[in-house]
Each structure stands twice: as C-alpha cells, then as structure tokens.
C-alpha cells in the first residue's frame, strides 16, 4: 500500500457559505445537494483526513497511514523537516456566500497563541478558540471559475477617496490620520476604529454608504460589492471593506498568494486552494463565528499591498507551476494531451493529484500499474513511488512539497 499510487476518498465540509451544486457536480453526485457544500479536503489534517482506497478492502485514513509509514509516504527529508506530518492541505472551495474578513498568524504567533489557549484549557473545537494548532497558514488560491476576493490593503489615497464619498463625519478623524500619519499607524487606527464601533454607529455609516452606492455609484464594482455584502450580512461593518482592501477578480487559471498577516476575504466562485496544514483563522467581520478584534489587530500586517495576480510558469511541456515563497507546498497544473505525456521528477515528497477536467491515466513506472482519474477524482502518490507519468486528455492539479 505505501509503495503504490492509490485513489483517495475526500471529506466534504458543509458550511453555510457553500454551494449546493459546485462540489456535487465536480464529484459526479446528484445536484443540488441537501446541505450547502463548501470545501473538499484532500490531505491528512486531523480534523478531516482523506481515506486511502485499497482494492479488496482495508481502506485507511491517510493520517494513520503516514503515522505508520512516514518515510515511505513523505520521504526522508519531508518526514524529518515536518515531524512526520504532511505539511500541506489541499482543498476545493465552492463559495456561494462571502467568507469572513480574516487573517492568519505567522509561525511564531501560531505557536504562542496555541500554547496560550491550551493553558486556558480551551477545547480544540471550542467556538471561542482562535488557534486550533501551532502552525502558520500561508495559502494559495487558484480560480476554477471567475473568482472574487478581497486581498490586502489598497493604497491609502484610494481608501480615503472611497470612504470620504460615503462615510462623511463619523470617520473624519480616522481618515485624517490615514492621510497624515505613517501608513502603518493610519491603517491600524482606521481598521481598529471600524471594528470596535458600536452597533448604532455601524448602522449609521452603512446606511450612508449603501445609500450613496445605490443612488450615485451604480456599476462601480467596489460599491456593488458593498451593497451585496450588506445584503448578505446586515449590520456588519465588514461590508465596508471593499473600500479598504483590493477587490480582485481572478479568471480561471489565475491565482493569488496570501502570506501571514494579510487581511482578506473570499467573496464568490470555485477554486483550488493549497496551504500549510493548519486551521488557524482570526476573523474581523462578515461572519457569525467568533471574532477577536484585539488578536486580529496583533496579527495583521498594516501596509499597502499592491495587487499581485499569479500566472503559472512553464516547468515542462505539460506542466506549469505557480511560484510562491512557501516551503510547505507547491501547486502546478498539468495538461496531458495526445502529443504530451507528463513525467514526474525523481526527487519529491508525497503528491496529491486532482483531476478537474477530462480523463487521464496515471502510470506507476515502478509497479507497472495504472489508475484512471476523471473529473473530481484524486490520488495520492507516495514518495516511495520512484517515477510516474500522466497521459490522456484533461486537467490535473498537483499538490506537492515546495522546498526539496
């Protein structure tokens, strides 16, 4: 089992913001689904590990398989570097309703926060818990459909222009600091002011901005999203954040990278997401879940962040890779065709293959065996598989470890 390529059965997470159709259609199940389906998880996170499918029975958790055979599955270097754990988590996100305004801690902050909440004896699944593990969570999102998001702070001048048009006096002092103080202090003061407002003040600002957007700015995507978020989350100051963060529309195949401390929110669409193996989230708005403003303000990096869209770079005739600084993961997209067969490299860790289109054959050069992947199917390739190839016609996303 540990020396062969195997299909995976992957858990689907049902969250209120999910789609009733996207994941069902991707995996070939009846649509619409009864419950909203938000995330397809592929990996070995303790919360919801994938299952390795074995012919003739004996299916087992990928987490347990790695525990029992870390070097065979991960390879010597990855097993040693990451404490016998798969360092990444691979997902498909299907977003019907916007996710929360959020940021993720860096490694030091995650370790400190996890230990601090452990000392308070908070259960790992406690609603008020911020840190569910001691790991950071850099992440990459790649669009499968047109994908809307907020990502990183706009230029201060843009922010001020948008906010002065609609907000008026309630934010006057914060906007003066934004233009007059160093960027870090001005941004932190503005975000802190917004997130600490009382309900009555929030409603007054939102009424003014939404009214202005409906009457005077129809067709402006920033104000269109303010209206949409206000309709989704009435009375939530997060609806104002399209004026503060970069509004992004990714086309299929485009991606963006989110380092620690980057304030963001995913608004709508379907995409593949690859991240360090963590579930740590600090939220500030657009959610009914736990919000901890002081902790979020400690984690966020308050600086202007020009929008950077990632395009894949050719690595081989059939493969393009999305370059990021993350050590835990690397995402590439493979397009085998009649004239192009993908052939793996020799040195690698465990890889997860997800087919999103077409029909391909994954050939294990060591075992002289083949498995077939069609849309929505995934497979695990252990490090102990020397080499493999992918032929056919289709699209396969490959998740692997970045620094090898």
Provide an overview of this structure.
This protein is α+β, with helices and mostly antiparallel strands. It has helices spanning 22-26, 62-68, 70-74, 76-81, 107-119, 156-166, 172-180, 183-195, 199-216, 221-232, 293-299; strands at residues 6-9, 12-13, 39-42, 51-52, 60-61, 88-95, 101-103, 139-143, 147-153, 245-250, 255-258, 264-276, 282-285, 313-316, 319-322, 330-334, 342-343, 351-364, 369-374, 378-381, 388-400. The strands form three sheets. Strands 1, 4, 5, 14, 15, 16, 17, 18, 19, 20 and 21 form an eleven-stranded antiparallel sheet that branches. The chain is globular. The model has no long low-confidence stretch (mean pLDDT 92).
How large is the count of helical segments? 11
Shape: globular
**Strand fraction band?**
25-35%
The residue fraction in helices comes out at 25-40%
Mean pLDDT: 92
* Helix-and-strand structural type: alpha+beta
**N-to-C terminal Cα separation, in Å?**
24 Å
Biggest sheet features:
11 strands, antiparallel
Uncertain residue segments = none
**In total, how many beta strands?**
21
The radius of gyration is 22 Å
How are the elements arranged and paired?
Layout lengths: L5 E4 L2 E2 L8 H5 L12 E4 L8 E2 L7 E2 H7 L1 H5 L1 H6 L6 E8 L5 E3 L3 H13 L19 E5 L3 E7 L2 H11 L5 H9 L2 H13 L3 H18 L4 H12 L12 E6 L4 E4 L5 E13 L5 E4 L7 H7 L13 E4 L2 E4 L7 E5 L7 E2 L7 E14 L4 E6 L3 E4 L6 E13 L4
Antiparallel strand pairs: 1-4, 1-20, 2-3, 3-6, 4-5, 6-12, 7-13, 8-11, 8-12, 9-10, 9-12, 14-15, 15-16, 16-21, 17-21, 18-19, 18-20, 18-21
């Amino acid at each position: 089992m540990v020396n062969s390529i195997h299909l995976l059965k992957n858990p689907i997470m049902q969250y209120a913001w999910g789609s009733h159709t996207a994941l069902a259609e991707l995996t070939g199940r009846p649509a619409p689904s009864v419950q909203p389906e938000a995330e397809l998880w592929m990996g070995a996170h303790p919360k919801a590990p994938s299952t390795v499918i074995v012919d003739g029975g004996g299916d087992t958790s990928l987490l347990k398989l790695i525990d029992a055979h870390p070097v065979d599955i991960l390879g010597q270097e990855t097993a040693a570097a990451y404490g016998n754990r798969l360092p990444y988590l691979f997902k498909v996100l299907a977003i019907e309703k916007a996710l929360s305004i959020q940021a993720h801690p860096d490694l030091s902050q995650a370790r400190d926060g996890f230990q601090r909440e452990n000392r308070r004896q908070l259960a790992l699944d406690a609603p008020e818990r911020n840190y569910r593990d001691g790991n950071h969570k850099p992440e990459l999102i790649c669009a499968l459909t047109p994908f809307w998001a907020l990502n990183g702070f706009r230029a201060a001048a843009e922010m001020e222009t948008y906010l002065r048009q609609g907000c008026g006096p309630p934010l006057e002092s914060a906007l003066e600091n934004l233009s007059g103080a160093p960027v870090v202090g001005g941004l932190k003061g503005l975000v802190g002011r917004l997130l600490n407002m009382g309900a009555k003040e929030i409603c007054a600002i939102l009424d003014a901005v939404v009214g202005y957007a409906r009457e005077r700015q129809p067709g402006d995507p920033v104000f269109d999203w303010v209206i949409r978020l206000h309709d989704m989350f009435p009375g939530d100051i997060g609806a104002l954040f399209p004026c503060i963060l970069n509004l992004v529309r990714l086309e299929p195949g485009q991606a963006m990278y989110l380092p620690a401390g980057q304030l963001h929110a995913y608004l709508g669409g379907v995409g593949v997401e690859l991240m360090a193996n963590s579930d740590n989230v600090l939220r500030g708005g657009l959610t009914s879940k736990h919000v901890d403003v002081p902790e979020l303000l400690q984690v966020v990096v308050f600086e202007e962040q020009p929008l950077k869209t990632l395009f894949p770079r050719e690595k081989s005739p059939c493969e393009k890779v999305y370059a990021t600084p993350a050590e835990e993961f690397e995402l590439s997209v493979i397009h085998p065709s009649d004239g192009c067969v993908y052939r793996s490299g020799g040195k690698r860790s465990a890889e997860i293959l997800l087919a999103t289109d077409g029909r391909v054959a994954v050939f294990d050069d060591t075992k002289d065996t083949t498995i077939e992947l069609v849309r929505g199917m995934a497979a695990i390739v252990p490090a102990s598989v020397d080499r493999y190839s992918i032929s056919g016609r289709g699209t396969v996303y490959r998740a692997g470890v970045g620094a090898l």
